[in-house]
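G., the chain you wanted modeled:
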Amino acid sequence: MSPPAVPRGPVMLDVAGVELAPDDRDRLRHPLVGGVILFARNYASSAQLKALTAEIRALRAQELLIAVDHEGGRVQRFREGFTPIPPMRALGELWDRDVAAAAREATRLGWTIGSELRAHGVDFSFTPVLDLDYGASTVIGDRAFHRNPNAAAHLASALHDGLRAAGMPAVGKHFPGHGYVAADSHVDVPVDDRPLDRIAVDDLVPFGVMVGRGLEGMMPAHVVYPAVDPQPAGFSAKWLQEILRGRLRFDGMIFSDDLGMAGAHVAGDMVARAQAALGAGCDMVLVCNDPAGADRLLDGWQPAPWPGLARGAARMEGRTPGRGPA
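Predicted structure as tokens:
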């Protein structure tokens, strides 16, 4: 029997283990679902991961997008059998000594991330981190390339070259920049009091450069910038539509950060959070590590059709890898 021909919906969910449970299958067949994000708990071996992604793809005629956070350093979900990727700060430290060598290494690492994930049926990683390393944020820290926005832009562009060569799109995060504030949006509601002009001359630089290079996806921060908007960036039409879409001319796909994070709770219950994110300009919302919340969203949310979703999601499909970087 052929899988149902259901278009991708605006929700990305996680799954429980190394193979799909009946509850996972039911959720992933729901018409609101359009993607799956994998975690370390979903990985036991190379063969197992390939079987899991194949099983996910077989559920729907229009295959669900499959994503993972696989940046390197402490955020690398798959380890045994995968090449260890250093934290991106290591590239920034190399950039300080040898700019050309750092760019070459960033491209090589992008190719490694992309080719290994694509060989296992994963469409894309939520990378690169475009936040700047101000030395204040524990949640960002060594995930950032550099404090210098030009260095961060240069290295992110080189990493993107490698990802593209491997057939993988990229998602920049966390727009418009999470690195300045110390609070962790997983457990708090960070507030960045800087005016827009301060953010624009520093933090927005890597985002703008990557948009100009055709970045395929973007993830906003669950951070409040009260000088710009009282809502966190991921729930702010000012940030997502006026600044990201309008000023920077980004035309790719916008993914919310996890709606289960504390930084998202200001928008209300799970249905209210999803509606606020979509209303602000997100194309797809993430609900992770909260099966009950996911069920409430799938049972209770009736979003209006969003014509940009299909086009954006098509750009996030992984492609057959080309030749590796020279």
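DSSP finds eleven helices and twelve strands in the chain.

Shout if anything looks off.
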